[in-house]
Amino acid sequence: MRKRGIALAAVVGLAALGLGGTAVAEPAEAAGGRIDREAVQRVLDTMTGRGGVAGAQVRITDGRRQFTMRSGVAEVGTTKPVPTDGRFRVGSITKTFVSTVVLQLVGEGKVGLDDPVSRHLPGLLPRGGEITVRMLLQHTSGLYNYTSDLPLDPAGFERIRFKHWEPEELVAIATAKPLDFTPGTDWNYSNTNYIVAGLLVEKVTGKPYDEAVEQRVLRPLGLRSTVVPGDRVDIPGPHAHGYYSVDGRTVDVTRLNPSVAGAAGEMISTTADLDRFVDALLDGRLLAPAQQAELTKTLPFTGGYGLGFEALELPCGVTVHGHGGGIPGYSSIMLSTKDTGVRLEGSFTSAPTPGGGPGPEQLLTEVFC
């Protein structure tokens, strides 16, 4: 889940989340390439040393070369290295999977991007006749962000950490508040949009959105380490842990009920699976050409946000595409150049005490600039 739509913003906030750990670099497979691996390693080590990150793992594609790197520890208080094939909570990167499924349904003629939501989900939204499917995917619906009313600070999150949430319950939190603006006239990142999109997928396909994601994206691409967990509180397989500090106590928040994020941010994956996904998506292997064009179509006021997919121009002038994500304990990135020649996927676990080092914007500079 995220409150802002810029991919970089999802991870910049890590600078305030914790302390670092012992750096453990992944050996490079081959010399050469445009990217300076030693510089990347220094950035990761700074993030885990002073930047509020307990552990970091990244996968980088540099033309024909691909390598993984890591820093910090998998568990605070140990020297256990972060697994470079470890699973992690991807947060709002879930939105790109959901948007892909919706766009596939559009290509099949089962739903229209400019259909009012009330055509498929009558009675769900007070102004569902004005809000379209496109507005949900692009965050221009005006729907209030339900997570703004949840206690997601460290102390408050402990109270709801293992609670089960129905998607309709989350939507109700949002619809109890007025719209932020008239639908289609402005942009505001709202997780509510994708909770509704998940319900839309379920109504149109006749199956829960997680089954649609698995059938339409995960299985065809062979993403065997990616799961939609539902109420399962554990992360399966090897993984690093994320932390909060509550009243001076270090709290491991790795285990949680991700239904609080639902179709807006509950998925678990690996850097390898995310890399295969973003590569296939940008290469046009998941969407028909018309829907591929819609994926990256923006409006003057959406700040580069398309339909569950973002364009971010870096200070050096390079534009990258993808999404970022955050959920208690974890922040993540999935970014690529438009031609997929350079790609970056990463997971950053929060440490229990604040850090004061530079944020991961330096990582993006080293990889893409």
TrEMBL record:
Taxonomy, superkingdom: Bacteria
Record's signal peptide: 1-25
The keyword Kinase is assigned to this record: no
MF terms (GO), sorted A to Z: carboxypeptidase activity
Full protein name: D-alanyl-D-alanine carboxypeptidase
PANTHER family in UniProt: D-ALANYL-D-ALANINE CARBOXYPEPTIDASE, D-ALANYL-D-ALANINE-CARBOXYPEPTIDASE/ENDOPEPTIDASE AMPH
Keyword Isomerase: no
Keywords: Carboxypeptidase, Hydrolase, Protease, Signal
Domain Beta-lactamase-related stretches: 41-342
